[in-house]
Amino acid sequence: MAKKDWRLIQTWDLDGFRNMAIDEALMLSHCLHPHTLPVLRFYTWKPAGFSLGYSQDPEREFNLELMQQDNIYFVRRITGGGIIFHDDELTYSLCCFPQELSFKGGVRESYKYLCAFILEGYRRLGLKADFACQHSFQALGRFHSFCFWGREHYDIVIDERKIGGNAQRRKKNFIFQHGSIPFSFNSRILKYLNLEDRDIFSKKITVLDEYLKIEKRELLQVLKLTFAEVFSVRLWQDGLSKEEEHLAQVLYEKKYTTPVWNRNRLSLEGEFRSPSQVLER
Length: 281
Prior knowledge:
Blueprint: E1 4-14, H1 16-32, E2 39-45, E3 49-52, H2 58-61, H3 64-69, E4 74-76, E5 84-86, E6 89-96, H4 107-114, H5 116-124, E7 129-131, E8 156-158, E9 161-162, E10 165-170, E11 175-182, H6 201-204, H7 216-231, E12 233-238, H8 242-256, H9 259-262
Parallel strand pairs: 1-2, 1-12, 3-4
Antiparallel strand pairs: 2-6, 3-5, 6-11, 7-8, 8-9, 10-11
Helix pairs in contact: 1-8, 5-7
């Protein structure tokens, strides 16, 4: 069977507003132009910041006064799930139609299918990683406002502790997913969250630095290889098209840097119609 072609895009050290704008621009571009190639993107965050799940209330989840005092920002995602602090990590995103990965199944099964390349990457690095549903965790599938503390069925765990997190946006016959692969975790960021039992974080989560020392670009090479092999695809190095760059810039200026989106989950109307509304029509 012939291998399918995918675009591979890498962007380094962008802030969260720009990263989320690019993710949505790539999603919209491929969804609206299905003849184009599906996309796998890897990226990093600078400066570090929080991302907030689509349905979460920042007034409820954050100590906003303390965040403002310490100049800590947050950005709302188009995907669901809980809060993630993005700092020393490698992040991926992908957007495709199910047939472009020969996938058939529901939302839960899609996490198992799509996260398989990360799981295989960890195993090739010598880590004993598996899915959370292979363990007898209590409250499996129960939502937690802080992503790393919750355990969904197909979250990846090492030594029964969760590593990273993944979230999706589904539109009709289209899949967008992105996720965090943390190298380290600074527990001091917990002071910005309205959480209980902050002292138990070390029992629930883990990071790559606990097991091996590897550079982000080294991990990227491993994950590129496992993605291509697991899904039988060819990755072609690429950059943003002019249309994608323009759309990302519009989203950055008119959506992701605005309080009306980040605080209230509203898109601006009037002169500007949010590109995300195109998918709703």
